Amino acid sequence: MFWKKKKQQTDTFIYESKDKRDAYRYDFKDGQGFEIQFKGKTLQVINISAGGIAFYNSDFEQFDSDFVKFKLDIPNFKDDTSFYTGLRILTIDETNICHCIFEQCSLEQHELIHKYVLEMQKDDLAH
Q: Is the pTM value of this prediction over 0.85?
């Protein structure tokens, strides 16, 4: 005769976030973000991901666009990190933050931003 062992049932909790970008987005601490020129105004970047950036609204409207230049300071990276890319405001939320998407950004530039986000997160964890 054979007896089968009963499998122990474990409760599984699955957390699903509505903001899928959060894991790959780097939020700058106050005063640590870099500046960009957008539609003639100098703005402090609040956060960045390979998809885009966010900044506080300064009389912009949804779908405003411009070309921006910036350079990322990636720890332990020697190659050129200069960007010149299109930027379009997708939404302006209730806290008056413009959420933007990069346009005409190459795959290499997307990968470079992923590297930047990863290195910045690792640096935060180290300190």
A: no
